[in-house]
Amino acid sequence: MAALGAPLCTLRALLRELRHAAGRSYRDSPAYRYVLAAFRAHRVTSEKLCRAQQELHFQAATYLCLLRSVREHEALHREYHGRG
Fold this sequence. Notes:
The protein is mostly helical. The protein has helices spanning 7-22, 30-41, 51-80.
């Protein structure tokens, strides 16, 4: 399994992808509020290793990969789609 990196970097990248997907009003979206609430609820406190926090981080990284892949697929489809 590849290293996940810092949870804050994953959160920022995930919010960036949500902004690309939703446009300017992404902060009003339920997805934005859910992601922030989930990351806040699963923070590691007092140097305690929290399995749920790592699980959330892995799920967030997976969802980030999905959002990036969909955006890149749409860009490739627009560029190379035949206009027959």
